Amino acid sequence: MEIKQLRYFKRVADAGSVSRAAAALSVAQPAVSRQIANLEEALGTPLFFRNGRGVKLTEAGKQLYAHTSEILEAVRHAEQNVRDTVGVAKGTLLIGSTPTVIRYLAPPLLRRVAKTHPELDLEFTEGFSGYVNEWLSNGLLDVAILHDATRTQHFLTEPLLREELVFAVADGTAERTTAPITLTDAANHGLVLPRRSHGLRLMVERAAAQARLTLVVRSEVDSIEAIKSMVREDHAATILPRGAVTPEDGLMVRPISEPMLWRTLILATSSQRPVSQTTRAVIQELKAVVRELADEELWPGAERYSERGPVFTPKTAVAAGADRTPPADPSQRLA
Asked: Which residue of 232, 262, 282, 293 could cross-link 299, Cys pair, CB 3.0 to 4.6 Å?
């Protein structure tokens, strides 16, 4: 077995499709298929069932997958430790966050790192915050950008910025207004939201609970694009970060008032593993990009984090450690 084969194997297994894995790897699909075929030949058994909708792991594939993450993590850290001894930022660094964050952060960060650290490759993985939290905990990411609602004691964290949450409905609805809507009125609409395991849903539910409101949840969907599609086609409603809605989505956005809703995005690494010099270098570049995006208003609805409290902070989130100032101990800070 080769390391490249294992990396491709894991990507295909996670994506459930060779074509989607190839797109994520920026590699031609035949090259991915060839590596998988070589791996199956080396092991003497098929690793995937193929069908018209994609691929699924065989029993042998499931056994291999159970070891793959640990193997790849060990290899990545070994490579990074060696490179740290010579002070060169190179290799592959994995960053995970929500689709909205990746949309605004990935392009400028890739351009910046290509100039400042040309021997370093960045890979981005997107998902709802509950999934990103799990990936970071399991060592599948080097850096994550999470909502404060998903913070745990196993992460070293630092606040980055705040995002405004807005109410969105289909552009063709009878209520054609962009005037602010109260949280009370928003809660009474049939909402399409992600499941409770994700930070956005936690934030909205905590806001409703503090206001003694009950949300009318019409559907639970763990995909930003699917949520927007359902709102647009089924005349439902949702609450999303302002930056998640673009003019092409066919949605009408209304600010939420009484109270306004903001979520804090935090930069996180695992407290269970040392932060490499390469990771620290990328973190510095990442924070510089975030400052530029917020200051130049290139990230809609986002503002730089400051000591000024948000307009709304759920009491339960504060109790869990959200929206507090970063620890004074330098060993507890990311950079």
From this structure: 293
